[in-house]
Amino acid sequence: MKEEEADPEDDDLSSKQFLRKSEQARWFGVNPRTIKRWAEKYPTFPAEFELSEKMLVRSRLELEAWVQAHKKERKRKPDPAAGGSPAPPPSLRDRGRRNH
Fold it and tell me: Which class is domain 13-80?
């Protein structure tokens, strides 16, 4: 069985300090609209900032930290019906995978 080769684009993203919304979406394996919804839904989601006049980005390190913190919060409150938080976004390990 042939080992799965790493996507060179993913390697590029993991070495970047700041990610545009389209790159964030690719990194998480979701649609860019999902990034916008997470930013609206979760007050702790990292804020966008202007890297240049026309370039809005988020810190990759802040996104990684948010995912880890969100996972921990989810473990403390696993039942949304009992007041827990909604399901966390896909883990970084699962990025790029989609259920069809």
Answer: mainly alpha
The dihedral region occupied by 83, where left means phi > 0, alpha psi between -120 and 50, and beta the remainder, is left
> 4: which 2 tokens?
């799965």
At position 30, the amino acid (one-letter code) is V
Provide the residue type at 98 as one letter.
Answer: R
Which regions of the chain are under pLDDT 70?
A: 1-11, 77-100
* Encoded tokens for 6: 């790493």
Q: Is the pTM of this model over 0.85?
A: no
For residues 68, 16, 20 and 31, what is the CA-based torsion angle, rounded to 10 degrees?
A: -60
| 57 contacts 18 by C-beta, under 8 angstroms | yes
